Amino acid sequence: MDPLVKKRIYDLQPRLSGQLQKLAACILKDSNDVCFLNARDLAQTAGVSPSSVVRFSRKLGYEGFQSLKAELQDGVRRQLSASGRVEKAKRSASDGRMLSHIMRQETGLLGRSPELNCEEDFQRAVKALCRADTLYFVGQRSSFAIAYFVYYRLCRLGLSCKLVTVGGPAVLFSELASLKRTDLLFVVGFQKISREIQSAVRNAKERRATVLLLTSTAVNPVADKADVILFADRGSAEVLQSVTAGFSLGHALVIAVAGQLGTRSLAFLNAIDVMEQESFGAKARG
Q1: CATH 3.40.50.300 holds for 116-276
Q2: Each residue's pLDDT tens digit, 17-48
Q3: Best CA proximity match to 133, nearest among 214, 235, 207, 215
Q4: Gap between the Cα atoms of 255 and 246, Å rounded
Q5: Residues whose CB is less than 8 angstroms from the CB of residue 142 and which lie 6 or more positions away in sequence, other chains included
Q6: Residue 189 CB-density burial (10 A; 0-12 exposed, 13-18 middle, 19+ buried)
Q7: Measured between alpha carbons, how far is 157 from 268 in angstroms, rounded to an integer?
Q8: CA 204, CA 21: separation in Å to the nearest integer?
Q9: Tens of pLDDT, residues 62-110
Q10: pTM score, two decimals?
Q11: What DSSP string describes 21-88?
Q12: How far is CA 117 from CA 52, 127, 131, 144, 218, in A?
């Protein structure tokens, strides 16, 4: 747990009611576990009411439990390096059946992700992608892989797409120079959003472009500026987090966009297939 958060809880404890005292003790005892529970599960673990979780969060100075939860999770991430999270994942499959363990874990994340999204938001995202003149895609680290995947698939449907390079403010803003009101900025980012990408989102909003965010939590530095938000469950931050749900959500967007475009997308894909076959045939003859 972050030392500052721990100190705030300790300082607040003497002034708390009985239920909130129990909740504080539970969080202090098992912060690495309880910070990955939802409010209802945390309340059940601590033996308090769900409303007590909200009241406790606000007494600590947070808008609600999600804000407190995000800070507790950040503390765990800072304590665990990437190599440490891999080691923890390996130890969790103590019976040696790593493949089946990981596949079950990934399946669970896929099963929970639809519950995080409403169909209306998903359809708004699809319509925004189809309506935009040009789609700009941006992400870093594992988020970049998801952004590139959606970018590549939508390019093949005939949409005007641009993959934005994050290589310093000068490079980033030169690539966004042509962004306009009828365009869309597709941002993939989870807990850590760089200042460059945050600046890119602010720039997009100043130009009144649409911002579509794919993330894992509403407690995100750019969530308040996004026009549409879609959520992918990445699992516990105590282990190396998954990108499976993010790719699946991106895949669902591509399929839905293709359905919206109808014969236009099929014609473009057929043209690509013809060109690829001709190219491979020329190489074979050569």
Answers
A1: no
A2: 888 888 888 888 776 667 777 888 888 888 88
A3: 207
A4: 14
A5: 241, 243
A6: buried
A7: 6
A8: 45
A9: 888 888 887 777 766 655 555 555 555 555 555 556 677 677 777 877 7
A10: 0.64
A11: HHHHHHHHHSHHHHTTS-HHHHHHHHTS-HHHHHHHHHHTT-SSHHHHHHHHHHHHHHHS-HHHHHHH
A12: 26, 16, 21, 21, 11
Alpha carbon distances (Å) from 35 to 3, 78, 281: 15, 14, 57
Q: What own/partner pairs with CB < 8 Å and gap ≥ 24 does 75-78 have?
A: 75/1, 75/2, 75/5, 75/31, 75/35, 76/1, 76/31, 76/32, 76/35, 76/237, 76/238, 77/191, 77/237, 78/2
C-alpha atoms less than 13 angstroms from C-alpha of 54 in its C-beta half-sphere: 4
Structure tokens at 278: 């001709």
Give domain 3-79's CATH number out of 3.30.1330.30, 3.20.20.70, 3.40.50.150, 1.10.10.10. 1.10.10.10
CA dist 99 and 81 (Å) reads: 22
Q: If we measure between CA atoms, which residue out of 71, 92, 116, 144 comes closest to residue 234?
A: 116
- Give residue limits of the domains in the chain: 3-79, 116-276
Report the Cα 65 to chain-centroid distance in Å: 19
